[in-house]
Amino acid sequence: MANVFRSNGKLMLTGEYLALRGAKAFAVPLQFGQELEIDAVEHPLVYWRTLFRDKIIFHAIFDTERFDVLETNDTDKAEWIKKVFKAIREQKKNFLLKSGAEATARIDLPMNYGWGSSSSFIANLSQWADVDPFMVNMNVGGGSGYDIACAKANKPILYSNELANPKFDEIDYKPGFERNLWFVFQENKMNTAEAIRKIRSKKVSDADVRRISDISEQWVKSKDLNEIMELMKAHEKIISGIMGVQSVMEKYKDFNGAVKSLGAWGGDFMLAVSEMDGADVISYFTGNQRPTIFNWTEIVKNQSIE
């Protein structure tokens, strides 16, 4: 009988970059993610395939001695999966030593969105192997781990990883203005590893870390849309100063509301908050060549619809 595992995608609303320095981050699990189906086989091989919208987009065969790639249609992706397998075996020495598997991953999140195709993959494999996904993530990618927390969360989370000690609490986040929160794709997928390298080269003060943590805590408590917009502006100002990069707000000065980068600046998604009707928000960003837009109620797991 097959074993099936499921993990969520993610988006970080506050704490980008500084979550790596221990700042608290507000993040949400998504309704989209990926499923992993495992069937055990007796011979020492892993037959892997990944499906997106019922079409095979990746396949590979690995041996289970050293997880060497024997066959694949995407060498870079197969080598990354090999790293995940090896990180798992560092924790669990007998993982796949005497058997193999047929593994089928079914993804329902577009992989160019930055919604967590890698983190949900790591979470699924770690659950299958019964190992700590945060340790696997650290050995493979070295991010803050908030995306791993989102992978299994049922609600939005307040996350921190100070001194390599990940902690998070699920939050019943229902501020009453969910329909005023929009996620807008910037039509550019950012490189997470490069973003991690950038922040590690920057000077970050303890005061900046504390201020971002304060903003995250204020955000989850606020029931005032105007206060959220002010927190967005304050957050953008801090990160802009640290990274030496212009805030996305400067690009949309005429927007009737506030916008904020999510994740690595310059790509992936941004958050747009406005009291305007949804049709007007969509019209504005479509007119600015940003036609891929989702409302909070469409994609966030455990969303409130009132």
From TrEMBL:
Keyword tags: Kinase, Transferase
GO molecular function: kinase activity
Statement: the UniProt record of this protein carries the keyword Lyase: no
Domain of life: Bacteria
Presence of the UniProt keyword Transferase in the record: yes
The name this protein goes by in its record: Mevalonate kinase
Organism, scientific name: Salinivirga cyanobacteriivorans
